[in-house]
Write a structure and sequence with these properties.
This protein has 11 helices and 14 strands. With about 300 residues, the protein is α+β, with helices and mostly antiparallel strands. The protein has 2 domains: about 10-85, Arc Repressor Mutant, subunit A, CATH 1.10.10.10; about 95-299, D-Maltodextrin-Binding Protein, domain 2, CATH 3.40.190. Strands 3, 4, 5, 6, 12, 13 and 14 form a 7-stranded mixed beta sheet that branches. The chain has a 3-stranded mixed beta sheet with strand order 8-7-11, with no helix packed on it. The relative contact order is 0.15.
Length: about 300
């Protein structure tokens, strides 16, 4: 009896090349050579009797048939992947893979200690971690979970809060010696502030304060603005370039070492939430469910 799906390696080659954008990048991802992938795609096109890709010297373009086949192939691979991971851990030993996306703030300063403890508890679970400030598409890009900042918008995603992260205002000692220490929110107008421009809106993120039990927002203005990665504001503050607002968990050790000084403590008290999110319609594998429960309990 002839094998019905002996061409799946060629399908994987096609999907990978399209996702990576070039034959060379696809070859790196699959640990092979561009010529091997080119032959695989040619075999697949011959089998289907249609052209999937238009090849030029600089780029690859999907044909209409190729776009349809790509969509269906991704869905098929996702079903296989979900089927494999749903049965993992049924023998009592938790195994499998979890794909997780987190922002740089959480990925560098909060998650490492949590994952270290999770790895001790579940040593046979492999976590594939993407640290990026881009909001990935969990379904289209194949992620199980993501950690996001802020109030979750109404969407098809399920969110569980991990924590309310305390905000604080900090500056380097050398800056405060040079420019003085602000005593009131209004004093910030005379200081070098380090605003963060939100990539999603192109607007400066307001600084959050609490004054006389009331919440107050203040819009920082500065000659140097940071975008894409909010950790850049902390780096600039450490260099003595001004004042920034950030999360206490990022700068607590630097404050204790004297590298930064918290200012306007009397106006602190605000926070922003971090949550773990996941698609509700996908049957999460046991490893992903275990990681969610661990993060919620330990976060």
């Amino acid at each position: 009896m002839a094998r019905r799906f002996d061409h799946l390696a060629d399908v994987e080659a096609f999907v990978t090349v399209v996702e990576k954008g070039t034959l060379s990048a696809g070859a790196v991802a699959l640990g092979t050579t561009p010529s091997v992938l080119s032959r695989a795609i040619s075999r697949l096109e011959a089998r289907l009797g249609v052209q999937l890709l238009r090849r030029t010297t600089r780029r690859l373009n999907l044909t209409d048939a190729g776009a349809l086949y790509l969509e269906q192939s991704r869905s098929a691979f996702a079903l296989i992947d979900d089927a494999e991971r749903r049965i993992q851990g049924q023998d009592g030993v938790l195994t499998g893979r979890v794909r997780l996306s987190v922002p740089t703030t959480y990925g560098h300063y909060r998650l490492p200690s949590l994952l270290a403890r999770f790895a001790l508890a579940c040593p046979q679970v492999r976590v594939e971690l993407s640290i990026t400030n881009r909001n990935v598409d969990l379904v289209a890009e194949g992620y199980d979970l993501a950690i996001r900042l802020g109030q979750l918008p109404d969407s098809a995603l399920v969110g569980r809060k991990l924590e309310d992260a305390r905000l604080c205002l900090v500056a380097a000692p050398q800056y405060l010696v040079r420019a003085g220490t602000p005593q009131h929110i209004d004093d910030l107008a005379a200081h070098a502030c380090l605003p963060f421009v939100m990539p999603s809106s192109g607007r400066v993120a307001p600084w959050l304060f609490r004054q006389r039990q009331e919440d107050r927002e203040w819009l920082p203005v500065g000659d140097v603005q940071v975008t894409d990665d909010v950790l850049g504001s902390v780096s600039l503050a450490l260099a003595g370039m001004g004042i920034c607002q950030t999360y206490d968990f990022i700068v607590r050790e630097r404050i204790e070492r004297g590298e930064l000084v918290e200012v306007l403590k009397a106006f602190a008290g605000r926070s922003r939430p971090f949550s773990v999110i996941y698609p509700p319609h996908r049957q999460l594998p046991a490893a992903a469910r275990a990681l969610i429960e661990f993060l919620v309990a330990e976060g």
